[in-house]
Structure formats: C-alpha cells, structure tokens
C-alpha cells in the first residue's frame, strides 16, 4: 500500500512564519514534523510515499526523506485545497487502496500501526481514526457518530478527524462529500494517546513537551561537555554538541547535533535547541524551541517561544509569555514566534504572543 502525505497547506495559524517555510519542515527533537508521520507509517509496513507540497518545502522534504530509507516522490500541489492535494497525489498511484496522511500530525508510531491494522482486520473500504479534543474545537475537522455511520461535520462534536485515512483509490469531486456519501461504510476508531495537529505555536510547544517527557537521558559520546557544566535528568545531547563552562541543562531538554550552549546559560523545562543552533552566555531558555541554525545573543531570556531557523536574536532580549491568548494550549502562556532568517534587535522586550 502506498501513502500520500499532504504537506502543502498555507499554515495560517503559524503566519507569518509559514510565509517562508512549510510548517511540516519545522524541527522537533532533531527531525522534521513530517518525519513523524513517515516513521509511523513505515512502522506499519508502508514504504512507498508521495508527498504533496509547495516550493517552500520541496527541497527540505526531499533531503529529509533521503535519510529515512523509503521510496518517495515529492511533487508540487497544483489544485486548490485538501481535495486538490489528494487528487494531485492520486495521479501518482495505481494501488487499489491508499493511505492519506497529513504531514503536520505528531503522534506515536502506534497510531499509524492501529490505522493499518484496523483496515486489515475490518475489511472496510474506508478507515478513519478520531481523537477527542477540548480546546480550540472550532479549529479542527470534526466527525459525529450517528445511527447511519460516521458523518463529517463542522460543529456539534468533540471528536476530531485525526489526520490519517485509508480510502479506495477512486475519483471524487470533494473529499468531505466523498466521505459523507459513504458514512455507513466507514470503520472508525478513537485514539486516546498523544496526538498533536501542528496548526498553532502552542501545538509545537505541546508536542515538544509530550515527546520529551517520554525520553530518558541520552548523551552522545561525540558531544563536548565542560567539566563544570551540569546535566540533569531526561536530557538528550546529540552528536558534536558543545555545552560550555558552568552551563546547566535541566531536563526534559534536547540539545541537537552541533548545537552550542554558552557559559553560565540555563536550558530547562521542555526546551529544544536544534541542530547547529547557538545559545550565548548567561541566557535562560524555558519551554522553547530554537530551530536549526538560530543564534541567541548573550543574557537573553526566552519562554514559551519558537525561534525560526537561521534567525538572530540579539543580546539582552526578553520574550515574556504570560498572560497570552492561546487557541489550543493547555496553559495561558505563549511567548514569541520568530520567523526564519529574521533578526531581533539587542535589548528588545517582546510581549506575549508577538509574531515577527
């Protein structure tokens, strides 16, 4: 069976960040968001992928998939919307049954294993997992269980479509209409494990928290850690990372490949400093994601923030997080969202929810 991965959406909840890159290429713990769905489907026995994306993501996604030992083709989306993206992908497949998966979902591999197993056991034409949601319900695609089967709805339910389907390879005009016309033929199951639809900044923070909470301490033998640095529990330090004198990494936390943590800096509480990122001296990084190649100037304080790849944050910058209006978050905290390649001037104070 082949899988079509949808990774061409506009990412409106993450604007202006997604004007420059596809959200599916954001890194969490050293791998792209897209890779979580690919890895899960690979675990379920699927090794052939068509990824539908845009010019903002094509090259990065191709480079990522080269590392995953799967057969793949990455194509640009030409038709509009989700239905259009699926149609673009179906043109590349001759299989009788197809997995349709959204590339912005972060879920355990077991989620995808359950999807494929449900299809194999049930003999149904369509399989759809559902997930309970309580915050930001209006931002999800919803489904309601009725006496006639499973119906996709816009409101009146707290069960979200979980971003993965198995369907027959056949033509349709509108994907939602296609599902509702076959509501009695749908096999569904409810997934109660970790699941994040990365649509807003707080989703990235939430996914990072969930993933880190399940990891134990892993320190690469090629990393360079000062004798005066302090490394706490549940800390992952990747290859060739450098932790300088008197720095403290208090887990859960992730320090990526070739990343640098400066003298006397503190990285703590569900933070990730991704590949090649640099944190200067005397900084404090809390509940934040520092994307690949970003640089944080000395004496800066970041909390509940997302710093885009190759961006530069000046020294003495403060990013506060409370109180903030969050759509899906479990806590009323949200710092800054800094787009890739942007600069924040020395001494800037950014209010909660600032977007650059």
Automatic annotation (TrEMBL):
Pathway: Nucleotide-sugar biosynthesis; UDP-N-acetyl-alpha-D-glucosamine biosynthesis; UDP-N-acetyl-alpha-D-glucosamine from N-acetyl-alpha-D-glucosamine 1-phosphate: step 1/1; Nucleotide-sugar biosynthesis; UDP-N-acetyl-alpha-D-glucosamine biosynthesis; N-acetyl-alpha-D-glucosamine 1-phosphate from alpha-D-glucosamine 6-phosphate (route II): step 2/2. The keyword Transferase applies. This is Conserved protein. Residues 3-183 form the Nucleotidyl transferase domain. Residues 250-321 form the Mannose-1-phosphate guanyltransferase C-terminal domain. The lineage of its organism: Archaea, Thermoproteota, Thermoprotei, Sulfolobales, Sulfolobaceae. GO terms for molecular function: glucosamine-1-phosphate N-acetyltransferase activity; UDP-N-acetylglucosamine diphosphorylase activity. It catalyses: N-acetyl-alpha-D-glucosamine 1-phosphate + UTP + H(+) = UDP-N-acetyl-alpha-D-glucosamine + diphosphate; alpha-D-glucosamine 1-phosphate + acetyl-CoA = N-acetyl-alpha-D-glucosamine 1-phosphate + CoA + H(+). Keywords: Acyltransferase, Multifunctional enzyme, Nucleotidyltransferase, Transferase.
């Amino acid at each position: 069976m082949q899988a079509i991965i949808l990774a061409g959406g506009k990412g409106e909840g993450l604007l202006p960040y997604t004007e420059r890159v596809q959200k599916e290429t954001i890194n969490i713990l050293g791998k792209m968001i897209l890779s979580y769905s690919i890895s899960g489907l690979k675990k379920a026995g699927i090794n052939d992928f068509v990824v539908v994306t845009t010019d903002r993501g094509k090259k990065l996604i191709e480079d990522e998939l080269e590392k995953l030992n799967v057969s793949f083709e990455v194509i640009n989306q030409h038709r509009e919307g989700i239905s259009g993206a699926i149609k673009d992908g179906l043109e590349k497949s001759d299989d009788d049954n197809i997995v349709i998966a959204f590339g912005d979902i972060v879920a355990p591999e077991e989620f995808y294993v359950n999807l494929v197993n449900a299809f194999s056991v049930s003999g149904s034409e369509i399989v759809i997992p559902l997930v309970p949601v309580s915050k930001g319900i209006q931002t999800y695609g919803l489904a309601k269980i009725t006496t006639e089967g499973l119906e996709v709805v816009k409101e009146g339910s707290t069960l979200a479509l979980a971003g993965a389907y198995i369907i027959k390879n056949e033509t349709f005009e509108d994907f939602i209409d296609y599902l509702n016309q076959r509501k009695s033929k749908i096999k569904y199951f409810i997934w109660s494990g970790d699941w994040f639809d990365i649509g807003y900044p707080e989703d990235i923070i939430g996914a990072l928290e969930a993933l880190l909470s399940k990891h134990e301490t892993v320190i690469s033998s090629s990393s360079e850690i000062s004798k005066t640095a302090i490394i706490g529990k549940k800390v992952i330090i990747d290859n060739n990372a450098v932790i300088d004198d008197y720095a403290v990494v208090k887990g859960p936390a992730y320090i990526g490949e070739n990343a640098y943590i400066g003298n006397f800096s503190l990285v703590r509480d569900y933070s990730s400093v991704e590949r090649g990122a640099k944190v200067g001296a005397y900084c404090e990084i809390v509940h934040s994601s520092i994307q690949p190649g970003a640089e944080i100037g000395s004496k800066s304080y970041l909390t509940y923030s997302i710093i885009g790849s190759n961006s530069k944050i000046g020294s003495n910058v403060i990013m506060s997080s409370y109180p903030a209006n969050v759509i899906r978050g479990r806590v009323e905290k949200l710092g800054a969202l800094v787009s890739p390649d942007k600069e924040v001037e020395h001494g800037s104070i950014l209010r909660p929810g600032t977007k650059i």
